[in-house]
């Protein structure tokens, strides 16, 4: 049987050979379960003509499986100590490109422009805990043309992505994800399939991006959403007129009345449509 990077014994040899030590600050928890690796790639629906962008390849565990399924894989890794390791582990895979960069600073529009002509472009990643949410939010807010994003995150964050109004996990991330994508849970992943073992379980979610028209009131909508959930115990009359939202209580009162939304509602009671209608009205 061929050696694969998810095999703990082989992974251990690689880590030892390169004298690698895990960085907690970079959220380095590497997968050691072949079934989970294959399920992530299957859940992402990767096909042979696809371009896959991966964030945080680590030593290449998921990259290896992606490269066997897709036409091309571009993996973005921040930790420069992992680059020589990836060059070694990915030596036999000629459709993998490694970029040493912070995914928060990558110009994805430019990256996709440089790589035209694929039937589909999919982001697939076992994201680092510390910046995973910010990376997903940034890609959604900037309307990057990925067809889908299949990402592993802490279970609690994934739950927030798919939460509905009224649920205690419903928040700014739920609204952003629901507005920009159709989200579905792919797989719950126990903490035992990583080294080092994290404290909490993870969940893989798939976001199929909607790519609707970018509305002129979208930036205001996201400001309102953030303001509303930053002070989620306050009524929207108070929370939506605070923070960096520059609207007066009178303006908001008029819009809420027009939309028949009660002034004493809280952000957690508002649907995605409510937020977009309020922003649309306020934007004039
Ligand atoms: N894909 C590997 C796996 O599944 O075994 C490793 C996943 S590990 C949870 C997260 C990876 O993301 C690490 O390799 C870490 O160095 C990398 N990383 C952390 N912050 C990053 C960032 N801002 N941009 C790109 N990569 C990052």
Brief summary of the model shown:
Helix content is 38%, strand content 18%. It has helices at 8-17, 34-44, 61-69, 83-89, 108-113, 132-141, 155-161, 172-180, 218-230, 236-239, 249-258, 272-283; strands at residues 30-31, 51-55, 72-77, 96-100, 121-126, 148-154, 181-189, 194-195, 202-209. The relative contact order is 0.11.
Q: What does the largest sheet look like? A: 7 strands, mixed
| Biggest sheet: strand arrangement | 4-3-2-5-6-9-7
Task: Please state the average pLDDT score.
Answer: 95
Q: What is the H/E string?
A: HEHEHEHEHEHEHHEEEHHHH
Q: State the end-to-end distance.
A: 64 Å
Domain unit count: 2
Which percent band covers the strand fraction? Answer: 15-25%
Number of strands: 9
Describe this structure in words.
β5 (121-126), α6 and β6 (148-154) form a beta-alpha-beta unit. The protein is of the alpha/beta class. The strands form two sheets. It has a seven-stranded mixed beta sheet with strand order 4-3-2-5-6-9-7, sandwiched between helices. A two-stranded antiparallel ribbon has the order 1-8. The chain has helices at 8-17, 34-44, 61-69, 83-89, 108-113, 132-141, 155-161, 172-180, 218-230, 236-239, 249-258, 272-283; strands spanning 30-31, 51-55, 72-77, 96-100, 121-126, 148-154, 181-189, 194-195, 202-209. It folds into two domains: 8-209, Rossmann fold, CATH 3.40.50; 218-283, Orthogonal Bundle (Helicase, Ruva Protein, domain 3), CATH 1.10.8.100. The structure holds S-adenosylmethionine. S-adenosylmethionine binds at residues 26-31, 55-58, 61-62, 76-79, 82, 102-104, 126, 128, 131.
């Amino acid at each position: 049987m061929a050696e694969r990077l998810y095999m703990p014994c082989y992974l251990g040899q690689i880590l030892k050979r390169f004298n690698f030590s895990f960085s907690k600050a970079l959220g380095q928890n590497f997968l050691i379960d072949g079934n989970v690796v294959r399920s992530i790639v299957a859940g992402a629906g990767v096909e042979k003509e696809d371009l896959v962008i991966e964030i945080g390849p680590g030593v290449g565990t998921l990259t290896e499986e992606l490269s066997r399924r897709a036409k091309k894989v571009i993996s973005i890794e921040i930790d420069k100590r992992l680059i020589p390791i990836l060059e070694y582990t990915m030596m036999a895979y000629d459709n993998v490109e490694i970029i040493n960069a912070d995914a928060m600073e990558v110009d994805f529009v430019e990256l996709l422009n440089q790589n035209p002509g694929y039937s589909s472009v999919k982001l697939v990643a076992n994201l680092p805990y510390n910046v995973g949410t910010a990376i997903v939010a940034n890609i959604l807010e900037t309307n990057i043309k990925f067809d889908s994003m299949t990402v592993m995150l802490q279970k609690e964050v994934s739950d927030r992505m798919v939460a509905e109004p009224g649920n205690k996990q419903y928040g700014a991330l739920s609204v952003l994800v629901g507005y920009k994508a159709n989200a579905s849970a792919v797989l719950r992943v126990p903490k035992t399939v990583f080294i080092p073992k994290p404290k909490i379980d993870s969940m893989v979610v798939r976001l199929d991006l909607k790519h609707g028209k970018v509305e002129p009131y979208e930036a205001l909508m996201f400001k309102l959403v953030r303001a509303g959930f930053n002070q989620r115990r306050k009524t929207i009359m108070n929370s939506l007129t605070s923070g960096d939202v520059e609207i007066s209580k009178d303006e908001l009162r008029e819009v809420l009345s027009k939309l028949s939304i009660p002034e004493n509602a809280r952000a957690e009671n508002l649907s995605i449509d409510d937020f977009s209608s309020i922003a649309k009205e306020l934007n004039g």
